[in-house]
Amino acid sequence: MIHATPFTVGLADTDALGVAYHPYALQLAQRNLESWLARLGLPLADIINHHAWALPVVRVELDWHRPLHLGTEGETLLTDIETGSKSLTLTHSIHAGDHKAATVKVVHACLDRTTGQSMTLPTMLTDLLPS
Description:
Elements: E1 3-8, H1 22-40, H2 44-50, E2 53-54, E3 57-64, E4 73-83, E5 87-96, E6 99-109, E7 111-112, E8 117-118, H3 123-126
Antiparallel strand pairs: 1-4, 2-7, 3-6, 4-5, 5-6, 7-8
């Protein structure tokens, strides 16, 4: 495990049966990304406001292993990082207690915001990644 972010399933995250719906898993992965970047010293707001690069999501894979119910407490774990020259693939494992509820794999392309073209991951980010 590389990083963990706790969560509690709220009413707005569930359907009429009190079960978390699929966008909630994507939201948990995004929150875990933001928390991890902040821990690395690269808060997402700083990246967006002060740098010419961005990490937009270009692919998502989501597998539910068991439902998350209203009030469930757990944590989202960043379990794997795959680095390409112009992309970053993060695997998040969503756990409730000892049970894995979902796996979310997210591919982030690196984008030069001034040109709109893909670019090599900046060294300010790659230097902080685990080897």
